[in-house]
Amino acid sequence: MSTKPGEKNLRIYNFFRIMAVVLFFGLGIQLFRIQIIEHDEYEAKAISQQTSDIVIEPNRGSITDRNGNILAVSATAYKVVMAPSIIQSDDVREKIADGLSSALSMDRDKILELTKKQTQYVEVARRIEEETANAVNAFIESDDVYSSILTVTEDPKRYYPNGNMLSTVLGFVGSDNQGLEGIEYLYDDYLKGSAGKLIATKTSIGTAMPFEYEKLIDPQDGATITLTVDLEMQEFLETHLENARVEHNVQNRMAGIVMDVKTGEILAISSKPDYDPNDPFTLTDELTLQALSTLTGDEYVAAYNEKVAEYRKNKAIEQYEPGSTFKIITSAMALEEGLVSLTETFNCVGFLKIGSITVKCHKTEGHGTETFKDGLANSCNPVFMTLGFRIGKEKFYDYVTLFGFREKTGVGLPGEQSGYHHALSAMTDLDLANCSFGQSFKITPMQLIAAVSSVANDGNFMQPYIIKEITDSNGNTIVSNTPQVVRRTVSEETSDILCEYLENAVVVGKKAYLPGYHIAGKTGTSQKLDTREDGEDNDKRVASFICFAPASDPQICVLVVVDEPDSEVQYGSYIAAPLGKDIIKDCLDHLNITPDFNAGEEALQVKVPDVTDITVDEASDKLSELNLQVMTVGVGEKVLYQLPSDGQTLMEGNTVMLITDEEEPVSKAVVPDLIGKTAAECNRLLVDSGLNIKIVGENINYPETLSTAQSITAGTEVDKMTVVTVTFG
Amino acid sequence: MVACIENLKGIVMTKRLLQPKIKEKRKRLPMFDIPFLVGVFLLLAVGLAMLYSAGYAQALLKQGDSYYYIKRQMIFAVLGIVAMFGVSFIPYKIYRRFVLFFYIVSIALLVLVLIVSKDSEKRWLYIGSFQFQPSEMAKVAVIMFLADYIARNKDSMTTFRKGVVIPVLWFGLPAGLIAVETHLSGAILITSIGFIMIIAGGCRIRHLIPIAVTALGGFASLIFFTDYMQKRISTWIDPSSDRLGDGWQILQSLMTIGSGGLFGVGYGKSRQKYLYMSEPQNDFIFSIVCEELGYIGAIFILALFAFLIWRGIYIAMRAPDRFSSLLVVGIIGRICVQVLFNIAVVTNTIPVTGISLPFFSYGGTALVIMLCEMGLVLQVSRYSATDKGGAG
User: Fold this and answer.
1) Which residue is closest to A29 within chain B, CA to CA?
2) pLDDT for res B336
3) Residue A44 within any structural domain of the chain
4) Same domain, A578 and A722
5) Please, what is the Cα angle at A81 between A78 and A85, to 5 degrees?
6) Which residue has the higher pLDDT, B61 or A142?
7) Torsion angle in degrees (nearest 10) through CA of A236, A242, A243, A246
8) Distance CA A450, CA A411 (A)
């Protein structure tokens, strides 16, 4: 201190103000650190506490059939959420329990219990309808206290308007709207969309700030998936499968596929029994429930759950034993390789010896001398074993690969399986023999229908697909599948021969024959591989039938698989063939591919047998064997009389009316005017009137040829089921 | 207002050109320091504007009127400005006659508040509907009393007894009383001002060493032996350790300051004031300033304070006598310490102490008294212009 006492110490003054500036500078640095360097970090923290995100759930995309019919759709529903931890008093708890139980029609004690939980988030009710939500909202608004405790938010709900229909394909969604099975699962990323957000500023006590700081990130609704499936054909398929299941008391499940031969589109696909995706955890099948009713307790629960899981599976893409239906493929191999002559003859003696082992034909007394065409129609095992040996293991193996049996078809469904085959190196002669008639390996129905369709489609193997199109919520197409030829399997010549021979097989087999529809197909009855290996239960069978039509220009292919039918006759021709026929007939009619009658079919006339004085069931069986349709009138058990009476001639496919009730008057029908119409129109008019048709004429060339005469004049009143002969050309 | 300042500038200019004539004029109309006055008005204007913005949400929530704080503060500001000019016209020598009186009254009031106040924090005296903080008055009284004491004892300031012990006792008494009010920050402030004044007054620095050692020792033992202080220190080191207590406010303050960035979110657009910061109109108003006006705005305000302090010391250096000079040093020192402590607290540079920001924080008594102090500085500045001992 150099200053004299009493003087103002200017140095100290200067020191003070410089110190002040230095310290201020220090504060400036400190602020720089916080405001500039650590700005982002602090800002993020501040924003996260200042904003409240309200998640806006997107609407899950719909699933529709090819014509836009809704198969799965999300609709807005609501949920009630509670924050019990902020409830202050028991009084409020009681009031909430009262209010909510009346608004939601829920148990009061259950709600009271929820109000006592020490948590911020409890879902009181989910997927409630708007009306109920409004009632809850009215309660919340009745007192300010509730507004911070209870909220009602959107909670999309998934509806499957057609119930069980297509369920094993569609799948279902879980509680958070996530796809759990089927298309819902596999295409979840497309369907779910992305959630939106409403970011709103809030004060520390949760109220909104007075100025606008809101940001809305729109939710992106899920994409709509259009399937190749045609809902009407799906209905035909499912109805027929279900009926057959009951009729034949099918022990295991059934599968069916309808495929567009030209494009590879899956028009219908089903597994029965299935489930209702609106309520996927409940068994709905009466037969199954009856079967389970013998069980009790844990056994019942376990068996119930097992069935629930099993019925979600899509059997159409799971392995099975194709049996004789595979003879189409063996035939294609032999024809393609020129290993069979159409004129040569085979001699079936009822078995064929493979080394020391005798492999029997299904007709133990043998088919005798037969051509290849006959062999296919007879489904003669020795003929196909012979062909198998001509083809040889290597070629057989290569063709199995070429027809796509060694890979998944990639149809676009989850859980699809591939085939189960012998390794080439381990294949014995016996294996080859068994393989040639479709035994000792497994493929999936989807693989078979794709392979057979390629044979029907001039050898063009079409990629099977079920997803036609995926369009986003703005209508932009994201995915669009078009028919694609994967490869060629056989030549057009081979294709033509097989179409003709397989139509012949149906005509000879009769069970699937429908006049005018030109159905080509092959039945199959296979021993179940797994059960046979166990050494027991080797009488279990899978009956199947694959067919396509019209044979001259195949449009659609149908495959039905019936696992373990419990009838006296297990063979495919008795169970699967009529089923496949019914399905393909409905599908062809739906596609307006109407019957193509020609004169040659007059040969397919039958004499009506006498079915009176026997039971209706017996009469039906008798008539069905002759390919006659049955119409029952009355509720009696025995047939009192029949129309037309016995001895009359009908065409296969015509209808016989069975009258079982004494009081039932003999129905009369008025003959319609049939002149100048196509065969299809005439048939429809007569069927609608309850009459039968008989077609005669030369060179009928559907559909141009028109009718020129009718045996009974229009306007005449006749008994029902009277045969009206219509002349064409 | 601007026109008036321009006018005044004109007078100052003329004064320099016509030195002798002005010398005569000065006696009739001694001019106060215009830059200092401009600084005061700028700070007051910005301070009021920020108080309006920062207190908006709190006022609405707690008082139901978003203008509640600003209306009251404006009234006090007007009163304060009137008082400031009033004070600035009365020669400081007149005040000097009353220093002992002020001091005794202040001490009396500090004792009184301890006896009569029913608040948990015994800070307020209520006279009818009017409430008053004796500690605010005590600060001015101590400054004036110390200035007078040092001026009277200017020749013995170098002694330990008269230069250190006696003045420390003089400001120690009110500081102690305020500390008993549990108004620790007030006590710290008075102590800081006291030391600044005796150092400026010329005491021997080495005489302060025992005092400093005693103070540090006392402070350290406070830290080590009281949970209260330890908690404060640990909260300071890691605010998130006391997330829901004191740490909350400091965490919020850092978030508030940090979200301002370089340019701020804009005046009036603070989001943190919406009840995240508790009482953003008081001690933590600077956080809202940083959020709304950004780093640029914060530095501008810091610069304004720095300017006021710089200019204040300049006035003190050119003050006509020892008393007036130390009076200004005390007042300026007080502003400086308050600003430093306040901003250091909001930036978590030091542990939390409740020191308000002059001109910004809500508080009528404090504002009026602060403006009166500014009036004192202005009064002194009237005589500084001709002080040849002054250096700019």
Assistant:
1) B299
2) 94
3) no
4) no
5) 175
6) A142
7) 170
8) 10
Element (H, E) at A55: strand A51-56
- Rounded to the nearest angstrom, the minimum Cα separation between A18 and chain B is 8
pLDDT value of position A712? 84
pLDDT for the residue numbered A224: 93
Residues A521 and A627 grouped into a single domain: no
What range does the domain containing A635 cover? 599-728
Residue carrying the six token digits 């023999």: A433
Q: What are the DSSP E strand ranges found in A671-722?
A: 692-697, 707-710, 717-719
Task: Give me the residues of A, 518-557, that contact B with CB < 8 A.
Answer: none
Which residue matches tokens 């102490």? B353
A719 pairs with which residues across the strands?
A668
Q: What is the predicted ipTM?
A: 0.85
pLDDT above 80: residue A351: yes
Which residue, A194, A224, A254, sits at the end of a domain?
A224
8 Å CB contact of B274 and A46: no
- Whether A46 and B255 lie within 8 Å, measured CB to CB: yes
Instruction: Using the 3D structure, point to which of A590, A610, A631 is the last residue of a domain.
Output: A590
Terminal CA-CA length for chain B: 27
Q: How many domains would you assign to chain B? A: 1
Domain extent, residue B106, equals 98-225
In the predicted model, is pLDDT for residue A226 greater than 80?
yes
Q: How far apart are CA A320 and CA A253, in angstroms?
A: 11
* Contact: B199, A3; criterion CB under 8 Å: no
Percent of chain A whose pLDDT exceeds 90:
30
CA distance A545 to A502: 12
- Shortest alpha-carbon distance between residue A199 and chain B (Å): 14
**Residue of chain B whose Cα is closest to the Cα of A209:** B274
- Shortest CA gap B344–chain A (Å): 7
Q: Does B290 touch chain A (CB under 8 A)?
A: yes
| C-alpha to C-alpha distance for A554 and A518, rounded to whole angstroms | 9
Within a domain: residue B102? yes
Bridge partner residues of A125 (DSSP): A80
Inside any domain, residue A272: no
* Euclidean distance between CA atoms B357 and B364, whole angstroms: 13
Q: How confident is the model at residue A567 (pLDDT cuts 50, 70, 90)?
A: low
Tokens describing residue B376: 């004192």
CB A655 within 8 Å of CB A721: yes
Whether residues A631 and A670 share a domain: the answer is yes
Which residue from A minimizes the CA distance to B151?
A: A6
My answer on whether A120 and A76 are in the same domain is: yes
**Partners of residue A39 in chain B, C-beta under 8 Å:** 258-262
Query: Is the Cβ pair B257, A31 closer than 8 Å?
Result: yes
> In 10 A of CB A220, how many CB atoms?
16
Query: Does A107 fall in a domain?
Result: yes
Q: How many alpha carbons lie under 13 Å from residue A187 in its C-beta half-sphere?
A: 29
Interface size A-B, in CB pairs within 8 Å, comes to: 144
**Is there a single domain that holds both residue A554 and residue A684?**
no
Q: What's the pLDDT at A3?
A: 40
Residues A637 and A549 in one domain: no
Interacting residues of B136 by C-beta distance below 8 A, sequence separation 6+: B365, B366, B369
Instruction: List Cβ neighbours of B329 (8 Å cut-off, separation of 6 or more).
Output: A13, A16, B147, B196, B197, B200, B313, B316
Q: What is the DSSP letter of A35?
A: I
Q: Locate tokens 């094993």: which residue?
A: A168
Of residues A21, A36, A43, nearest to B306 (C-beta): A21
Hey, are the CB atoms on A8 and B344 less than 8 Å from each other? no
Nearest CA in chain B to A2: B202
Q: State how far the Cα of A542 lies from the Cα of B318, in Å rounded to an integer.
A: 116
In a domain, residue B27? The reply is no
Q: Angle at which helices B364-384 and B134-152 pack, to 10 degrees?
A: 30
Task: Mark yes or no for CB contact A204/B274 under 8 Å.
Answer: yes
Round to whole Å and give the CA distance between B184 and B173: 14
Burial zone of B15 (CB within 10 Å; 0-12 exposed, 13-18 middle, 19+ buried)? middle
